[in-house]
User: Fold these one by one.
Assistant:
Number 1:
Amino acid sequence: MKNSRSGLFLIEFLIALLFFSLACAVCIQLFVSSYLLSCNSVNKNHACMWAENVAEIYSASGGDYNSTLTMLSNTEKLSSSDLKAAIPKNLSSFLSSDSQKQSKDFTASLAKNNSDQIFYLYFDKNWNLLHQSKDFSAAYFTLILSDQNISDFSNADLYVYSFRNHSADLLYSLSIKKYHQKTLS
Amino acid sequence: MNNHKQSHHYIDILFVITLLGTFIISSILLLIMGLHIYQNSVRSMNLNYDTRTAFAYITEKFQQLDTDNSVSIRPFGDGDAVFFHQQINNSDYQTCLYLDKGELKELLTKSDVTLSPSAGQNIFPCKALQFTRLSDDLYHITIISGEGQKLSVYISTHSGGIQS
């Protein structure tokens, strides 16, 4: 009688433990997704701010690609050649993960015409701007500006990508149009 | 026979106690994990809030008060401050954004009245604030928030500004 009672208690305890394990698994899953969401929100916030910053510089430069490049290189102490340094090979391999990035040349896929001009800004995991081209292969984020020359207005597309877990995710994109002022004669 | 029964009884109790221990340890671990995740989420939410507030506030002020020759930079409070000049009922007024005693402050006064920096209204805690004029219509603002987060803001004006 005593044996059967302790056996029943043990079974009840095991069922409770099983239920607890299931609840634990669900909770851990929720914790992980909440952590990832919070990281993503911080990254999107920074991506949005940097895209707005570059858009403001582009706008103040009258939509001129070269002036934007000069302004950025002067204020952020970057060389023009570093700004034009294409995505390092170890990072560009991440870009082949989804259909949009299956193009052989990612840079060419961003540019709508052959004459389009492109520059890149690279950031570490804390969103500090990387200044040396030798550090770019360790970049976590990149901002790309692709400028199209159209006679009546300047048009540029901004993309911010994150390189994490061997894949590249588009964090933020922004399209800028700056109409050129014309004087009637 | 009696000895065998007694050892069986001990193992039963030991097993139940081990299960109970596992249950308690797992619960505590789960709680600690939840606590860390919650702390991280709250910290990143606060950081997001601080940076977004600072960014939005300053950008909004520039956009709101951006009129012809209205923006200038000169020393006030703990460093350089930005002044926006405006006319209200034919009188000249100025709105000033500046750093004073670890706070970003805003002060609206008549242009000919000089008040002390402590008269301004606190906006948010800020360790450092620097305004730089890059061109006629581009400003660079560097902010280090109360949490130590560095923020770089570029703002283009549409109306130009007064030479500082």
Note: The mean pLDDT of chain B is 84.
Number 2:
Amino acid sequence: MESADLVQHTSRRFNEDMERVRTRVMEMGGFVEQQLQRAVTALIEGDSALGEAVARDDYRVNQMEVEIDEECGRIIATRQPTASDLRVMVAIIKTITDLERIGDEVEKVGYIAARLATMEKPSDNYREIRHLGRLVTEMVHDALHAFARLEADEAFEVARRDRKVDDEYEAIQRQNITFMMEDPRSIRRALEVMWVVRALERIGDHAKNICEYTVYMVHGKDIRHLSLEDAERQIRDVARGRRGG
Amino acid sequence: MSQQGAHGPGEGHTFRPHDEALADLRSRAHQMGTLAAQQVETAVRALLTADGEAARHVLAREREINAQQTEIEARIFALLARSAPVASDLRRVLAISRAVTDLERSGDEAKKIARFALSSADRPDGGPSRVMHRPLRRMAEFASESMRVAVDALDRGDPDVAHEVARLDREIDLEFEAALRQLMTVAMERGRLLGPVFDTVFALKSLERIGDHAKNVAEHAVFLASGADVRHAGRADRDPAAADRRH
């Protein structure tokens, strides 16, 4: 028990376990990202087969979540990680929950894309959705990047972009209402578009959550219910306090 | 490394140092869940009676729910780090940890409904159409009921109510689909007042999500009791026609 060898041995095994789990999280993230891109493409190109394929493939995301989750439970039970290692485990468990939810939102977009493919396209060819889709896809990508490299500053930067996503979301919904008033025949399509925009907005929220877990992992601070400004200020204060001694 | 192994994990007769902490977690989760169920009821009542005061009350209590989540998670973390529970104790801790996320998200949805209630309270025609009152009320009843049932089940570690909660969730979904169809007609007729129609769609959607969260909590109770993960079971081979109705 007291043997330093044994402690080292245990921690090395823990590190190996953790590396394996982190790799799987990144695989899951990569797949979710790809799903998101395919869903937006299916919508814009009016490709119903692609939309259906995206929806169908969501089961793989679910599978990965369950597997990683079980693996984390096993590691916590058998390796009994120290506080800072445990923080990483918690962040991973939370991250995969959000990735799974992103998968669910993408699945919806897939189904809707398949349905919309049978309707007439709007004159702007979903320009706004394309834009919002790009913003959100980049957010997911960069959030995972920050997560993988434990980059808290990058995570803050990505989290801040969620405001832009929210603004875009509001603007598109307002525009959508105008379209519907001008042309009641477009209501069916406009309602479908509304769900897509809503799903994309939620994906932005989930990407922001992942950024918050990265900050938690790096700084040990739970910033979820703080404003980003307050969170950053508090973390800087702590860092300054440490440096000042 | 820890002392737990010697006791035969999960036997429950020997006093373990984290028993108290576990009991404390249970009661906190139950309290948070009860609050989440209340929030749904109050938010929808505020919406249907144009009661701005009640809506503000929901918004204030939402901060309380968030604080409860933070507190519970901090305690879970301390428990895991200090006493490394295993077997059924670990399952309970993990189940509570997941449930808390669902409860917080359910609280978030109630908050959105309360915001709609607040913004429409002092505006004539700003709220949901008359025909939407009944579906909103019924969905709120189903949602808060299933949340209560699920939270009780989690507390008792009772896997048997999962079916009941799933049944309530289907009721909510049916009600949701019917309301949406009806709302299309309202949208066509209302012409200039589409803003409140949109807000109503989102309120209905929030209630539908709360039903999903309740179902998740019930699944965490099953996980707690059996160790089996029932999430996503049967989802992969979902009937595409049924899935088509999803939004």
Note: Residues 69 and 101 of chain B are 8 Å apart (CA to CA).
